[in-house]
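Data card: per-record layout.
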Amino acid sequence: MADDSIILRKWSGRIRTTDEEKYGAYVVETGMKDYDSTEGNLGYQMMMRPMGDGTSEVTTISWWISMEAIRRFAGDQPELARYYPEDDKFLLEKPKYVEHHRVIAGRVNLSV
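The structure for this 112-residue chain is written out next.
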């Protein structure tokens, strides 16, 4: 990936739909707090969507100034997902890998 591009990091997993509120609060206090405190993080979002079978897909995306900044957050193997101690209590699946995308263009206005 080019060093002068913004990089989007994407992770998705599944939880029980009944755990959405608790898991959301947990991620805010763990992963989102770590995003905030990592130099080179430009922002993040967490999304949930019920799958209709009692489970919900959770996706987090974060924007970074470089792969080096992502390494400050994720470690020497930034393609591996980063998990926290209580994740096993919530996650029905723990994908091993995340995705990294070079951001070409975009615009977000969240004040609706």
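Known properties of this structure: The chain has one domain: 7-102. Residues 20-37 form the longest helix (18 residues).

See the next section for split statistics.
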